[in-house]
Design a protein that fits this description.
- By secondary structure, the chain is mostly helical.
- The protein has a domain of 97 residues: Alpha Horseshoe (Serine Threonine Protein Phosphatase 5, Tetratricopeptide repeat), CATH 1.25.40.10.
- It contains 17 helices and no strands.
- Helix 8 packs antiparallel against helix 9 and helix 13 runs antiparallel to helix 14.
- The longest helix has 25 residues.
């Protein structure tokens, strides 16, 4: 008989976006009478660091992770991701530090180090570098990130193949379900209903989280159900008024519903909270710049 998975709850809470609950679970694991092995303790520290990262508590990542005072390479990489997301360290410096850490043969072979180094490179929009780190991995998390990269680079076919591998590995895993949802949404309205059912089942089993609610809103948008999607976005923002993903989804709903008066206010909030390096903000600036160039051309023609 196999041993029970002591980190089952912690993993699922992180994968499904229940980050505050994951922090509580991480503390409970240390207080539990069932002691963790060194490997599980390291993994526990990494999932706690990931929760802090997701909550924007960058300065707490790696603080007091173990009695020896040493920080595992996985947590160091997550600290670097926090530096990148907070804007406290320039991207080239962060990527240089990642390269230095991964030059250690032990780190380069460690699945968690490969995974978190890929996360950092994804934050820096280095899709090719991130894919090199995870494409040969056999863990569900490696496959999940591989599928995400394929979706970002418009290779839905390769993302489909990767999710099929995840199903063959563990079709009941919540991470497999989340990856399936991402692929279904990328495929368009024909599969959005499947995504909606999967997300409803996950929410019923594990409880709603901002991540699940945002995915539900996205599924409703893809289905063309903008009123329902708007309600889901507002529900999410009721839980976390600073949720940038919910704000971006809400902008999509407002535009499609013709509620243009609210769009400018919401976009201003996104720019303030997300910062200039966020992909949405950068895309918006490109569109605005193109519009301004075309407008100036027409203005010059009229003046002539």
């Amino acid at each position: 008989m196999s041993e029970p998975d002591q980190l089952y709850t912690l993993r699922n809470q992180v994968w499904l976006g229940h980050y505050s609950l994951a922090l509580d679970e991480g503390k409970n694991l240390l207080r539990s009478k069932s002691s963790l092995s060194a490997a599980l303790r390291t993994e526990r520290d990494e999932f706690v660091a990931r929760s802090l990262l997701a909550l924007g508590r960058y300065g707490e990542i790696g603080v007091g992770v173990n009695a020896s005072g040493t920080v595992d390479v996985g947590v160091k990489l997550l600290q670097l991701q926090g530096s990148l997301q907070s804007g406290s360290v320039p991207p080239p410096s962060v990527l240089s530090s990642v390269q230095s850490l991964m030059s250690d043969p032990a780190a380069s072979r460690a699945p968690s180090a490969q995974l978190y180094a890929a996360h950092v490179r994804l934050c820096a929009n280095d899709h090719e570098g991130a894919l090199r780190l995870v494409s040969a991995g056999t863990t569900l998390e490696h496959m999940h990130v591989t599928a995400q990269i394929h979706l970002r680079t418009d290779r839905l076919d390769l993302a489909e193949e990767t999710v099929a591998l995840m199903r063959n590995t563990d079709e009941d895993s919540s991470l497999t379900h989340i990856s399936s949802v991402h692929v279904a949404l990328a495929a368009g309205s024909s599969r959005s209903t499947d995504a909606t059912y999967t997300l409803a089942a996950l929410s019923e089993q594990y409880g709603p989280s901002p991540l699940l609610m945002n995915l539900q809103a996205a599924a409703l948008v893809v289905s063309g159900r903008y009123d329902d999607a708007e309600a889901k976005c507002r529900e999410c923002l009721g839980e976390d008024p600073g949720d940038v993903d919910a704000m971006i989804n809400l902008v999509t709903c407002l535009v499609n519903l013709g509620k243009y008066g609210e769009v400018d206010v919401m976009v201003a909030s996104i720019k303030r909270l997300a910062g200039p390096d966020h992909s949405f903000v950068k895309s918006l600036e490109r569109v605005e710049g193109a519009f301004d160039r075309v407008s100036s051309t027409f203005a010059a023609g009229i003046a002539a």
